[in-house]
Write a structure and sequence with these properties.
The chain is mostly helical. It has one domain (2-63). 83% of the residues lie in helices and 0% in strands. It contains three helices and no strands. It has helices at 2-21, 24-55, 59-63.
Length: 69
Amino acid sequence: MIAITNCVYLLNKYHIEFVKHGNKMKALTRIIEKVGLATLFTNITAAIGFGVFYFTQSEILKSLGWWQD
């Protein structure tokens, strides 16, 4: 789920950059420089959050059906 939103965001930024100057490599380089690190940290923190839910045996997680006893 998180990967889909990241892909949409990165593709949108790529197309905006590509329209500005028409150079594919330049557009790709710019979006990686601008949002690549932020996207990486967003994914890492989300993974940590899901890991905390898993190891703490959260009632919220159980109610969503992600837990097996």
